[in-house]
Give the backbone structure.
Amino acid sequence: MIKATLVLEGGATRGVFTSGALDYLMERDIYFSHVIGVSAGSCNGVDYVSKQIGRTRDCMIHKEKEYSYYYGFRKFVREKSILDMDMVFDKYPKEIFPFDFDTYFASEIECEIVTTNCETGKAEYMMEDKDSERLMKLCRASSSMPLVSPMVNIDGVLYLDGGLADSVPMGRALKKGNKKIVLILTRNPGYRKKPVKGVVARMYRRAYRSYPELVKTTLRRNAKYNWQMNQVERLEREGKIFVLRPLIPTVSRLEKDYDMLMNFYEHGYCLMKREYDGLMKYLES
């Protein structure tokens, strides 16, 4: 095991890029001592710790209709979610694409799952090393996109997508104290978030009027994300972190097309393979 911190950005189905990169690392038996996953990055993170090559890919890319986790409009109205979260975080790990809880809980890797506390609007970095139900609930909370997914109750507290409060937790990674940090992003070089305003801003204020701190966090997200990207680019230029990001156009965060998703997955795999020697040189320096 390499003493280093692996940070995994979210992005819903854009996370297939990350799964490709991690599958290559797992094939080479490369494991880091610390993992911090956000949203889809948390799903990639736990599959990496459980050493399940291809699991995230299989969960996110398939042609079989019975495995689909997308709700139609009628179900969206009834369930208040665009995705069947029970399918992804209950049926998948227990039945369809079994999750190796034994390997995960036996691992010495410290895996943090980033969530956003709806009351405080702040990020929380959560862990679970015994309870399988709670572990999947943490991943579910971290991946619950605002407006299109319900809040998740964990220990009496409501949570949403970790990316709202800390999309790229470099600050958390630096606090870990490891000299080496490996960051996998799901956006292209130079990407910056635009501010939330107009109709969308009003939707947030209306939907979460009982959670004013969450609204503030959501509306300030672009500013924090862009600041984080400036920090990432500076640290990368200084050789203090290793960054892998897609170099082809990204898929949408709710992409359904099988071929597009497989292409993005393969890009992550091939890019990590191409950059592997550079990664090893960085880790050994």
